[in-house]
């Protein structure tokens, strides 16, 4: 059972939003002071000296301007003393200087989201006017040590945040008395231990307590006097003893009339849930008590909390029935009662929960029929009814509920009958488990429509018949379990072609014949075939008998062959086969072409191309690719210069590549895609099949030639030129726009599959056009589920150095694959190194090379040409001087950002490399990429590159 996505992040999100919005600037009136303002300046400089500042965020902290105007520093309105220090999210590294304690007038310190280390200096709590400090937030750093006692003695403190650090120690007993004004107490995700002191009941102004994910222990005190408390999160600690009185504090929260979040999960708390929960605030949205030791009946009073969004009670020992008034919880998005001792029938009222997305009722003792009324939950995406005593038949309405995309688990029940054909409605479902039931009959053909499936478990039923051809379309399957059924006949070869199976279980059936040898059948640990007595052959590791009957058949054939008559028969058959194949081939080729090009784009003849290219003379040859040669030519009738790609049809795959490209380019139109003008499909002079694609001509050739100019130009007068930083960024944007179009704007999304500089062409204006769609694939459906249509695929393509790890890991052809390629392309553009460079071998790749250099050595690996360019052009005239016309839209938006300082330029490049989401993108390494890395990830991966330079608006206009 996978419940990981209900984890920590969910708890934090509402509170974080609140913290961000509530920590607004508070005006601060400071008393006159005789102390000199030099003290504050020196303290700030000491702070600056102690930290590393890789982004130059504190560059303004110098003598040119008064310290009150330094970045992140705010002084009081009457006197030049620092009152607010706000250094949020600046990438600062290192320790905090104790001199910060000299900023005696500080009222707010915001240091969250940096990489600050060591202890929080106790001097912070020893300001000379502790009459004034009310806010300290240092969340999201790497502070260690203990919380200085001096801090927890500041009675002025209203907001205290140290969330997500590495702080140890325990909370002082008098905490509730020393901080009487506290509103926000946020210590979650540290290593704090010991009890929550009972004195916290004195915090009458408390609004938020976040103490989750620590090692706190002992009895939970009363929170009776906290009318403003709305966020109560103490989850993931070692509180409670598992006994009945563990939950005695719960009723104290009924006084908090605005309570919205209640999270006490994973705390070891035991006992029965008190009925007073019905008196909780009706504003309550989040109720988490999962993974505890609670028992007894679920109080029906919960049914009155009509604003509940999440009701997580799984993994306890609740018994009795599900209260039928849960049907009143109209706003419920998640109901998780999995893994308890609940019984009875599943109430029909649950069908009223039309907003329900996640329903977990598995691992209980429910009986009765599988509830067909759940099919009224039209938002349901995740359904788990497994491991109950449900019987009857599988309701067609429920198994065909097309909203379900993540999981349907009906395993380990007692339903009988057939698997309804409506299962084919679950086109985007990723996991279906109907194992260990009593299902009979054949597997419905429609199962082949569930092309999103990655896990299919059907073991332990009475399915009979053969493995359907329709299963062939489930090419994205990673786990296929058909074991313990009555399946017969041969194991189809297409299973060997599945790209990503990690587990194939065919054991205990009645399969017969030869075991395939390729693909997953090469892996005796991933594949299980035991208990099939009629199988033979296969790799030795499977210990199957040799296929004797086959061999004797073959021997008979030998005998036959010796007779002349038989020879004629065989030749005859062969001729018929060849004839049929040729006809098929012709039909196959003709079909897409006749439909692929519209009337405005007539077929061109072989003769016309011959003329245009001077008989395909080598003078006009401008490249030789995987599947064809590329010529430059001029169409005689209108004088247009074109590029002609002649397919090498002898090359296996060339024809498929031709079809893929025609199909992909049929309906796409975008400024940054190479336009196909026409195609030629005919017969050449030698009566051979001839196929060619004709594109518009790109004056500046392929990007490859610009990035890696040949030191000894083979083509005579070809000038050696380089691209400057801005041209490169423009190209990066052009390519991102093309990808965005292919992935998100096309009617049927297209994955390019072979993005690299040699496939990116530059026109006279240096606008980039993505070309070469010979390996492109369509994505089925336009949902977030990115499984490629394998029926139109031409096998795994890509080029060494570019092929995303997903491919080599045996995952799906997906948008993420292109995004990965895009990332490599960016690295190539800005380091000037090719991923196929000789330096990169064994474990060293361009990817790991750059990852290694982040953050400290980025400029070292940045293409020398880029930095050189800037230095050469650096002049007193300012940046305009070195930005040429062709630098495009960035001219405008960058001029304001740049000075003519070389270091500033380096900072900009640095910013681009480090913050241009490259760091995030580098996370797309094999293994870590297996989560739900969907559209959100992929679209987020090329746009920030652009946004980082603040030019988003310019771009979209
Ligand atoms: C602190 O600075 C950040 C970034 O400039 C800003 O978003 C935030 O609102 C500031 N917070 C306060 C309390 O001033
Ligand atoms: C000093 O600060 C000013 C103004 O904030 C800034 O323009 C200048 O670049 C800084 N000087 C140095 C050497 O960082
Ligand atoms: C410090 O005080 C002096 C006079 O008291 C004033 O001229 C100067 O501007 C102050 N410095 C800052 C940074 O405000
Ligand atoms: C403060 O906390 C103590 C327990 O530590 C308790 O005895 C006392 O009654 C509390 N005071 C108030 C006003 O709640």
Automatic annotation (TrEMBL):
The protein's matches in Pfam families, at most eight in alphabetical order, are given as: LRR_1 (PF00560), LRRNT_2 (PF08263), PK_Tyr_Ser-Thr (PF07714)
Task: Provide the leader sequence positions.
Answer: 1-35
Q: Where in the cell is it found?
A: Membrane
Gene3D superfamilies, alphabetized: Phosphorylase Kinase, domain 1, Ribonuclease Inhibitor, Transferase(Phosphotransferase) domain 1
PROSITE patterns for the chain: LRR, PROTEIN_KINASE_ATP, PROTEIN_KINASE_DOM, PROTEIN_KINASE_ST
Q: Which PANTHER family match?
A: OS04G0122200 PROTEIN, SERINE-THREONINE_TYROSINE-PROTEIN KINASE CATALYTIC DOMAIN-CONTAINING PROTEIN
Query: What family is reported?
Result: Belongs to the protein kinase superfamily. Ser/Thr protein kinase family.
Name of the featured protein? Probable LRR receptor-like serine/threonine-protein kinase At3g47570
Identify the species of origin: Rhodamnia argentea
Q: Which gene encodes it?
A: LOC125316444
